[in-house]
Write a structure and sequence with these properties.
Strand order of the largest sheet: 1-2-3-7-6
Largest sheet: 5 strands, antiparallel
Helix content: 25-40%
Order of helices and strands: HEEEEEHEEHHH
Strand content: 15-25%
Radius of gyration: 17 Å
Distance between the termini: 38 Å
Structural class: alpha+beta
Length: 159
């Protein structure tokens, strides 16, 4: 599906959401991806708070094997782990719209600064403000330890 089609579907999804009913997509900005096959586009909005959302363009392929022989798609993996990670107390982006059938999700925009900049304190003033809201630079090691603990917990539940 083309990017234009996905942005159009995102506009429709936003217009049907009470939170974004008055929002208008003003522009879009492609973002650098992560380690997955997904890609991301920031949709800049007017008429709403927040002023942007992330269009996560999902990729085919399998994620981790889940509780046996069946493998989840990468999109299902992200979607299904989100509430589990929230329940574990980890800060994860809110999913605003589930468009997996059409190959996309609309998720909370949590900015796009690299972790190494957070680790070495090389953030812009706005990024520093966002980092403080998320727990601060001093909390980085704490969050990494919590993530590792969660991975161990997931492994133990699988075994």
């Amino acid at each position: 599906m083309s990017l234009e089609t996905l942005i159009s579907k995102s506009r429709t999804a936003l217009s049907e959401s009470p939170k974004f009913r008055l929002a208008t997509v003003e522009s879009s900005t492609p973002l650098v991806g992560d380690a997955s096959a997904r890609s991301y586009v920031r949709l800049n909005l007017s008429g709403s708070t927040p002023s942007s959302v992330i269009l996560m363009i999902l990729a085919g392929g399998s994620g981790p094997v889940a509780g046996g022989e069946s493998a989840l798609s990468q999109s299902d993996t992200f979607f299904l782990l989100n509430p589990f990670l929230k329940k574990a107390g980890l800060p994860v982006p809110e999913i605003y719209f589930d468009g997996r059938v059409d190959g996309f999700l609309l998720v909370e925009d949590v900015d796009d600064f690299p972790l190494w900049k957070l680790a070495f304190g090389e953030l812009s003033p706005e990024q520093s403000r966002l980092a403080r809201q998320a727990g601060g630079v001093n909390a980085l090691e704490h969050y990494f330890r919590r993530a590792l603990d969660l991975l161990v917990l997931l492994r133990e539940q699988r075994d």
